[in-house]
Amino acid sequence: MEEVKDVIINIDENEKHTSGLGRLRFALNYNATKTELQVTIIKASDLFVHDNKEGINPYVKISLLPQKFCWQKTRIVEDSPDAVFNESFVISGFSKERIREYKLSFCVVNYHEYFKERYADDVIGEIHFPLSELKVPDDKSTVSLTRWTDLRPVASSKSDPVDLGEVCVSLCFRPFSGRLIVTVTKIQGLSKVACLVSDPYIKLSLYCDGVRLSKANTRVKRRTLNPIYNEKFNFNVTADQISHTTVALRVANHREAHSPSLGLVLLGYNSRGSGQEQWHGMLESPSRHIEKWHKILPDDLA
Known about the structure:
By secondary structure, this protein is mainly beta. It is built from two helices and 17 strands. The chain has two domains: 7-150, Immunoglobulin-like (Sandwich), CATH 2.60.40.150; 165-296, Immunoglobulin-like (Sandwich). It is 5% helix and 46% strand. The chain has a five-stranded mixed β-sheet, with no helix packed on it.
């Protein structure tokens, strides 16, 4: 049997950092035979936040792009700008060909005890690492990489984004029966630039810890930029799962081949702004229907 080879890449721990937000040390180990990627968050260093009244209590959220949903997160390290984690997570089912298509996102977040009142993560900085950099050889081998990387500011939306329209959604969580009710009411002002002739519908996907648990579609509405749906969807979600749940609403045009996305709305764990605000309102008022309008964003900005 051919001997399995190891390829090891290390970056000097004393490498200078210039972002001012701090840096993160992580390790990756890919086993081509098992098609497994092990991700280890080792430690963070020199973390900086502008408003430091409650101290720096960091943890790391790990997402797999382009899915964009949080896959795992580390524990919280209290009151430390130089946090040591040493936590490992495993992703399975990635062939050498497939793994090159993805990126890992490391988002370092400052935890606040009264976080739910903020309606958004207090993000210190993030890193996007292309898995194509693992340089997997053609023979069966294990590739290991350890790296210090500067944190970068979270990418902001363009100053003048295209108006893609809005979606009105109602949320209701019933913890005793373990049901999440998502009611898609209507869309207003779909972009004429995005679709000259539009037969819009919405694809709903429910994720927990980055794993899709359920999906559904609304009906297709013909030749309209302002469709009315009033459709209710029931998802089975336990009280333990709800805090790690994300609902993605992707607007698509039935007339286009393969139903390309016209934009996206995220609600829940991985959302920001209005999506997270509505989610917290739902959790604070069990069994009540909370309705809100959300701007449709391009997939890369949602």
